[in-house]
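Possible regression after last week's pipeline update?

I re-ran a chain I had predicted before the update to compare outputs. Posting the input and the new output here so someone can diff against the archived version. Not blocking, just want to make sure nothing changed silently.
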Amino acid sequence: MTIDASIDAPPARENRQHQRLTDLKYRWPARYRASWAALLLVVLGAAIIAPTALSRNSITLVTALAGVLAIASFGQVLIVMIGAIDLSISAIVSLAAGVVVHYAADVSNVGVLVVGSLCAAVLLSLVNGFLIVILKLNALIVTLATVGIMIGLIQLWTGVALSATGRTPKALVDVADADVLSVNAVFIAAVIVGIGLAFFLNSTRAGKSIALAGSNPRAAEVLGIRVRAVKMMVFALAGLLYGLAGVLLAGYIGSPDVLSGTIYQLLAITVAGVAGVLFTGGPASLASVLSSCLFLVLLDQVLSVQGMGAGARVVIQGLVLAIAVAAITIGQYGASRIGKLRVRRST
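New output (post-update):
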């Protein structure tokens, strides 16, 4: 009996190890790991060719910009999870920053300004949601149209400088400029937001329904999920995140203008692609979103240190997005082919 047990033990141990590896691959697939690998490569590259990009001041700058980008990208990722894309992110971020700056001289309570900015951002995002979810209009066309409308209205309302002084309230600037061990407070806020959002998506019924409503709406309806209500909730959450990103952006740069949010239109989509989010809808890894933001901002910083112009850096961002989407597509195709071959061999 003892001999048989000792003989059977190694296969059982191997089976457990194989099961753990399989669980890890399922919970953290290759498309989520790619952004971490990219971040590691750019850190190593920076240490070799542009060490100043890893200096104390540079790390503070990179984490601040990555924090704003991460919070905005969380909203974009939520929209992508339901199978849509939001091009109005730039306008909503600019609007949130505009509310804070425009009324800074009239409202002494910064908390009231922040709440007002967030409410305005949520309202505008819900308008997009109504047109896309309820009226079933094309998401790209709707959000592209609302960008122009919102930017034009902001300019008519506040002007390019947003206010006479164009300055963010000092209390908000002090918060956004703070850092802990060279890590900017904005990035710390992004990590906290990401943890809370990940808990919501993975541990609550409403959160879990988002991925299902995006990947398979019919199955979601069969399970009793109110798909339209879930998608409207997503647009509200995205608006809240865009608004928070705009408020923190205004605090960090101190004097935003009407075009301050423009860069996030392409960047947030690039983050989603690098983070391995499927543009057809479905689950996403918020940890990979954070690493993607650090990767893109640090890459931009390295290229800037090397003297590369803004136009060339935007081209590289576009190439990164194209490569990321192509890699995900090829990976999905390869995985499906391998799965079919395994089924054929087993039969």
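Follow-up from reviewer: compared with the archived run. The beta strands are 179-180, 183-184. Marking as no regression found.
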